[in-house]
């Protein structure tokens, strides 16, 4: 299978290539494109050679959806993004899946299995997306139950500053600076929380947009975050997530 990748973050592109090779050694990555400007002429010249596209939704020069109004892309597409809000737009084109970053090997394997099960259904630019539609309508967890001694307390998600993992334990942080364990993994929380409100900045932390009081640029263009009422806690955005974090932090108006 021949694959083309549209991704403007080099580390994310390399990670995707490693995962693809691990999934199936027969997969060939024909090209990695990093902008709409470079992608459009390449796709027009090579679309017939491609079996599957991976496209990051937000690029430095626009949204990858713009390509579909500029040229014919009659091949299946798996979109990748840090945001869940573009699911409806993905449903309007040839998407077979919509992967939220950071992408795991399990995520990718599941998408490729879905592609194989749908291969017979593809015809030209046919739209396939019941899973995308379902994702677009899903709701997110609005509160968490924690135990304080012999008492139980319900904490609204909108009041949580962050979740963090330490060893096998995962805790939430309240506006008062209190920390309470929750019975979820960081990976499962990523699926339960609204990606417009929470971002996984590194392997250990999911932070709330409302909770960020300061962002500092320091060594190697990395970012360090401060949270409301928790200034003594140093949270560093991992290097490979800096680009996605900036776009998430900026928002889309």
Number of strands: 17
Strand order of the largest sheet: 2-1-3-6-7
Q: Count the helices. How many?
A: 7
- Beta-strand fraction estimate: 25-35%
CATH architecture of the largest domain: 3-Layer(aba) Sandwich
Low-confidence stretches: 122-136
Q: Name the average pLDDT.
A: 84
List the quaternary state of the chains: single chain
Note the main sheet.
Answer: 5 strands, parallel
Q: What structural class do the secondary elements suggest?
A: alpha/beta
CATH class bucket of the largest domain: Alpha Beta
Summarize the structure.
Helix content is 27%, strand content 34%.
What labels describe this entry?
Rossmann fold; 253 residues; alpha/beta; 27% helix; OB fold (Dihydrolipoamide Acetyltransferase, E2P)
Describe the protein's architecture and organization:
- The structure is a single chain.
- It is built from 7 helices and 17 strands.
- Residues 122-136 have low confidence and may be disordered.
- It is α/β, with parallel strands linked by helices and 253 residues long.
- α1 links the parallel β1 and β2 (28-33).
- The strands form 5 sheets. The protein has a 5-stranded parallel β-sheet, sandwiched between helices. The chain has a 5-stranded antiparallel β-sheet with strand order 12-11-10-14-13, with helices on one face.
- The protein has 2 domains: 2-137, Response regulator (Rossmann fold); 143-250, LytTr DNA-binding domain (OB fold (Dihydrolipoamide Acetyltransferase, E2P)), CATH 2.40.50.1020.
């Amino acid at each position: 299978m021949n694959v083309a990748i549209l991704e403007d973050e080099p580390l994310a592109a390399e990670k995707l290539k490693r995962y693809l090779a691990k999934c199936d050694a027969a997969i060939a990555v024909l090209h990695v494109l990093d902008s709409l400007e470079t992608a459009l002429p390449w796709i027009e010249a090579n679309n017939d050679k491609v079996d599957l596209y991976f496209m990051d939704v937000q690029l430095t020069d626009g949204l990858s959806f713009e390509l579909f109004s500029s040229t014919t892309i009659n091949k299946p597409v798996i979109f990748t993004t840090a945001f869940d809000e573009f699911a409806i737009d993905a449903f309007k084109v040839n998407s077979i899946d919509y992967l939220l970053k950071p992408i795991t090997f399990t995520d990718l394997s599941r998408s490729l299995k879905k592609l194989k099960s749908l291969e017979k259904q593809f015809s030209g630019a046919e739209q396939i997306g019941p899973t995308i539609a379902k994702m677009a309508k899903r709701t997110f967890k609005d509160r968490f139950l924690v135990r304080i001694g012999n008492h139980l307390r319900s904490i609204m998600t909108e009041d949580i500053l962050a979740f963090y993992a330490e060893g096998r334990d995962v805790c939430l942080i309240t506006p008062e600076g209190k920390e309470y364990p929750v019975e979820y993994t960081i990976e499962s929380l990523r699926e339960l929380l609204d990606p417009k409100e929470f971002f996984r900045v590194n392997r250990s932390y999911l932070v709330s947009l409302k909770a960020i009081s300061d962002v500092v640029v320091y060594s190697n263009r990395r970012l360090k975050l401060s949270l409301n009422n928790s200034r003594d806690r140093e949270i560093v955005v991992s290097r490979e997530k800096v680009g996605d974090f900036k776009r998430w932090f900026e928002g889309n108006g």
